Amino acid sequence: MFRIMFRTMPLIPVLLLQACSLTPGMEMETNSPLSNIEVPMMKDGKLVKEKAKVSQITADLIIERENSKRQEINDLPSQVVPMTEYRIGPHDRLQITVWEHPELNDPGGEKIDPELAGKMVQDDGMLYYPYVGNVQVKGKTANEVRELLSQGLSKYFKKVKLDVRVLSFQSHRAAVVGQVKTPGIQAMTETPLTITEAISRAGGVTEDADMSNVTLARDGKLYKIDVLRLYEKGGAEQNLLLKDGDVLNVSDRKDNEVFVMGEVGKQQALQINKGKLTLAQALAKAYGVDFNTSRSEEIYVIRTGELKTGELKPEIFQLNAKSPDALILADQFHLQAHDTVFVSTAGVTQWSRVLNQILPSSFTSVMSKAATMGL
């Protein structure tokens, strides 16, 4: 038996040397400020190749990112939309009533469909009215148009009394799309249209809606709106007034996943619930870190980045969990959709897996085969 073992021993160094290039599992260079490989990044509207930055998850990093989130709230567009009177625009239809002069009024009056009744404002914002001619009404309120027409008609009639009101609102529109029950175009009326009002007009959200990730597209920029925060915590600053041309998109929560890989109890995709999932929660839901086979100092969060303000910037975050109190940091580090949590494999575990691949049975089984062959 000893003769068999001695004859077999020379095989081991050869197998181990070959294993250097066959070590299974993924790993990253530790304590490096940059990723091992170059990744695509968007800069100034162009894709370039650069190495992603690796940042240590520390208390300072968490504080910095939380302050950045609060700054994003302050970066929301200002409430420049008028809160009071409606501003008339192209394709609006106006009903103009001149008292004691029925010949100047629209025949049929209230019996005509509002879409066809009244006088329509032209593309250039002009409105034609008998005796007065073409009047620029774009951007004016109904009261301002009334004053203009009264002045024009006073040249031909005494004590002119008239009323102006908008019959059909067509010039100011916003689109509500995504996970709402009736997506489509919504006209803005004399009542200011807020984000919550627009969602309500669209029949409310569907079961698959991610209320924490609603986006507002305005003037070529994209703003993230946390409607869930508005509903649960009364964050009124999120309930913006919509203006002409806005597009409100309610995201699908099915796309709001985090992927947990590496030395965890169960590799899987996890759903972010109501926009909240921390690194500690993700590891717990994956049945924890296997501290027997992992490098606890190498827990990574790989973030591909989001296309915002013309920049796509992947990032990598590393948590050193050798000390149990590092889980406090993990519980305060919030994950984002499409993040990948990766727990590295310990070196001894990698060697063990190499031997299991090269020697699929136990070493005793190999020696038994060798003995059978007469080695």
From TrEMBL:
**Where is it mostly found?**
membrane
Q: Does the keyword Membrane apply?
A: yes
Q: Name one GO cellular component term.
A: pore complex
Domain named SLBB: residues: 173-250, 257-343
Where does the record locate the signal sequence feature?
1-19
Where found in the cell? Cell outer membrane
Task: List residues of the Polysaccharide export protein N-terminal domain.
Answer: 83-166
Q: Which InterPro entries match?
A: Poly_export, Poly_export_N, SLBB_dom
Q: Name one GO biological process term.
A: monoatomic ion transport
* UniProt GO MF annotations: polysaccharide transmembrane transporter activity; porin activity
Keyword Transport applies: yes
Give UniProt keywords alphabetically: Cell outer membrane, Ion transport, Lipoprotein, Membrane, Palmitate, Polysaccharide transport, Porin, Signal, Sugar transport, Transmembrane, Transmembrane beta strand, Transport
Listed Gene3D superfamilies: Outer membrane lipoprotein wza domain like, wza like domain
Regarding the membrane, this protein is recorded as: Multi-pass membrane protein
| Pfam families in the record | Poly_export, SLBB_2
- Similarity field: Belongs to the BexD/CtrA/VexA family.
Specify the protein name: Polysaccharide export protein
